[in-house]
Amino acid sequence: MLPSSAHFDEIAELHQTRQRWINQEKKGFLRYRTPLQYLSQFNAGHVDCCGDIVTIGKSDEISPSEQKEIRDRLKEFMPWRKGPFTVFGIDIDAEWRSERKWQRIIPKLPDLNGKIIADIGCNNGYYMFRMTASEPELVLGFEPSVQHYYCFRALNSMAGLKRLDIDLLGVEHIHYFESCFDVIFLMGIIYHRPSPIDTLRDIFTALQPGGTLIIESQAIPGQEPMALFPDKTYAKVPGTYFVPTGSCLGNWMKKAGFKDIDFFHSHPMSNDEQRRTDWMQFESYEDFIDINNPHRTVEGYPAPCRVFLKGRKI
User: Fold this and answer.
1) Is 184 helix (H, G, I), strand (E, B) or coil?
2) CB 3.0–4.6 Å: which of 113, 129, 165, 308 could bond 265 by disulfide?
3) Would you say residue 1 has pLDDT above 90?
4) 53-101 confidence digits (pLDDT tens)
5) Residue 301 neighbours by CB under 8 Å, 6+ apart
6) How far apart are CA 123 and CA 143, in angstroms?
7) What's the CA gap between 284 and 287, in Å, rounded?
8) From CA 76, how far away is CA 279, in angstroms rounded?
9) Which domains does the chain show, CATH number per domain?
């Protein structure tokens, strides 16, 4: 299904290496493989990805005892970061109100019908499921996390959506997919990359001519093209390198080769959109912000906002 420009030998070797790794009989893998194996026996008769809540199955398709067992198995994928979902009548309230992010993107979406799409850092696939409403040819999720990889596979084993697939790859592997994708989504990833412009250049390489990048990122407020380089953590998150302003991110995209750059949305983060729930019981946004100054993180840095940009490969 991918164009002949893809580096198939390298991709196949990566895939096989990652599959050998994840198929080991170790607790860290069995922890998520076991609920996948149980949930895979259920095939949803009703699937709806058009609304804010991704719906997989209805409660009347299963027995009460099966519903309890499904709930217990879904709980094994906690913490749930993206959502909301409802699975056979079980409501999953994830940490992020991801439907709000998707609502901000919808007005700027390119035509997805019949397109080949990559969702880099796809997590449990919430946005991938939402894309199916546009009937793409293929949405490929890049997700190196064992937890999220198995969670998506469990959800889609029940949903049975053949347009969706996932592999244990990260953004560092995107350059092997030369001129493959019509649209690439990079949401919540770029600030974790030590060389963000190199990452954007690799994504540029992976787009077909005329292709579109939709990028969403944590950012610092401000109009000047600058980026924060935090010491150890930013909002308690390790592995954060550069946190740009929106205009800085736009300049990175220009230097990577993108044209028609559209900085189309920015909003402050809040504990209304990212918070603890019964399905994510660990620290969340309110724990990352200075209790005495909501405009600062616990480390004393400017509190984050989120920015959305779009660019094209001409």
Assistant:
1) strand
2) 308
3) no
4) 999 999 999 999 999 999 999 999 999 999 999 999 999 999 999 999 9
5) 220, 228, 230, 234, 235, 243
6) 6
7) 6
8) 10
9) 8-26+98-312 (3.40.50.150)
